[in-house]
Write a structure and sequence with these properties.
It contains two helices and no strands. With about 55 residues, the chain is mainly alpha-helical. It has one domain.
Length: about 55
């Protein structure tokens, strides 16, 4: 079985997640529990789902 970290799609999704975290760090503090959390969770779910799919494959 291949390691999911070798997949280009996982690499790109992971980079996107890191970028979203960097960008949302600059958001106003009143958005901390609103838009910031939603964007981070959405971005993080993509590479997570890819890795979970590889494990079950």
């Amino acid at each position: 079985m291949r390691d999911f970290r070798e997949l280009k799609v996982w690499e790109k999704a992971h980079r996107l997640t890191l970028q979203v975290y960097r960008i949302t760090k600059k958001f106003p503090s009143d958005e901390r529990f609103g838009l910031t959390v939603q964007l981070r969770r959405a971005a993080a779910s993509v590479p997570t789902n890819i890795s979970e799919g590889m494990v079950s494959y």
